[in-house]
Amino acid sequence: MLTPLPxxxxxxxxxxxxxxxxxxxxxxxxxxxxxxxxxxHLQHSFAxxxxxxxxxxxxxxxxxxxxxxxxxxxxFGLSLLCVTSSALIGVAAGVIAAWGGRRLxxxxxxxxxxxxxxxxxxxxxxxxxxxxxxxxxxYLGISLTLWVEYFRVVRASVxxxxxxxxxxxxxxxxxxxxxxFRRHIWPAIASNVLTLAAFGAAxxxxxxxxxxxxxxxxxxxxxxxxxxxxxxxxxxxxASWVLLQPLCVLLLMVLGFNLLAGQKA
Length: 265
Description:
Number of helices: 9
Structural class: mainly alpha
Shape: elongated
Number of strands: 0
Order of helices and strands: HHHHHHHHH
Distance between the termini: 23 Å
Largest sheet: none
Helix content: 55-70%
């Protein structure tokens, strides 16, 4: 039987509230008529805030509210995919390495060390550069970077558990390894894995934005936070309030995930 999730601290509740508001807003905005993030109206370039354009428009007259909502949905989607994939791979690799004997442990540890030999962002840029503008390559690059953290934490946590009397007793009684994982291992590593998942989501959002800064990630006119920021930089002096919008959203997303990963109550 799985243990219940740990209670959240005030900081974690604040992080969850920030992320929930961002996600809810991102899905409600299209229902309010702001569902065309890429449609240009050059005659309305840098239009001020109005009823029709609650957050104004960018240099091409595109609805900033629609673009920010689309960018938030994209960032959440990518972070969810990357965190899920990397957590599954990292947890499985960590348990297998700890449980599979020295040779298997040495092999997986060597692969992890090889991945870590390159800075994470450089690895993402290299993989994203194979097919510029590809969401799949961006997802693959970030996931390959993140799984190592899960592997190291899980491997270090599982190794002492395997020699514990509770697990050894269950093993002698003939229970399957899947049962042993659910009964003895997962309850011990769940808290750390969930914390890593929150940090991993923040890292995914930042990496995606970073690739947008150097035009190595998704391509225009995709509404992506990093790409929006770098496109608006040349207009900082005449429309700094427009540039601040994707910056603030990026800050709130990363802050929300980091708060969510904080210490439990």
